[in-house]
Amino acid sequence: MALLDKKISFVIPCYYSQDTIADVVAGIEEEFPRDKYNIEMVLVNDGSKDNTFNVLKKLADKDSRVVALNLSKNFGQDSATMCGLTNATGDYMIVLDDDGQNPPSEAHKLLEKIQEGYDAVFSKYHEKKDTAFKKFGHDLNDVMATELIGKPKNLELNSYFIITSFVRDEMIKYNGAYPYIWGLILRVTDNIANVYVDHKAREVGKSTYTLSKLVSLWLDGFISFSIKPLRVTSILGIVATLMGFILTVFIVIHTLLKGDLEGWTSMMAAILLLGGFQMIMLGMLGEYVGRIFINANNSPQFIVKDRYSKENED
Predict the structure, then answer these.
(1) DSSP track, 69-136
(2) FRET label pair with 228: which of 70, 100, 149, 275, CA 20 to 30 Å apart?
């Protein structure tokens, strides 16, 4: 590979990874030795309350290619990734997880593929070795990305990927409080490919992937990068209006032919149906307005509290 004149940045958002991140860094060091590759590793502690940042500092002490960043609180994986990309200086940026499920040895496949002229290359797993809940969340997120932000159906997006500095430079121009990495990449380019890589089962600890994080990811994706949900609410409003009109016609005809309808069943059904639609619409509109308000107040994507490297110890 013609990489002698190219710098490669490994960006790793870290969250409660004190027991796993050292092995990930060791794997990168083994696969990308100093005498053959020009690399850096940007490790971002996303507000972990355990010993994660101290572990990152020790890794920086051992290897001058490691830069450890400590965020002031937990901003979320996509914000931590944006922080890493913002501070990375490579020609290529490889993003991978902190739990050891993305083998660093597979990064060579990403590098080979992107040198064919692509702007971004995402991993595609032979077998995804995650929990059933995490797989379910990924599949739903994939459907959302396809239907709402224009992801090609034949393209698979995962957290192990590589982008060029051009894509990174365009992505970090986004200064909204709710970054969505997949949406930002798709907004920059459609020159994207997949390459098959291996995926390892998690060997240490438990996943921090929760229902609340899944819901937050959905909201960041389809509210920050698509207006289709507003269109859906408009359609629901039209459907509810038509159902109300049909019900009114039915009641009038029934009254003329058979007399008044007994009971309140139809009225209660109509009230609940219309009330539910209105609450959904108001809630969706509220999400949009709330995010506009927060972004207008310049709420940050991330705040770096500490930066640590061997050359510049803080």
Answers:
(1) EEESS---HHHHHHHHHHH---SEEEE--SSS-S-GGGHHHHHHHHTTT-SEEEEEESS--S-HHHHH
(2) 275
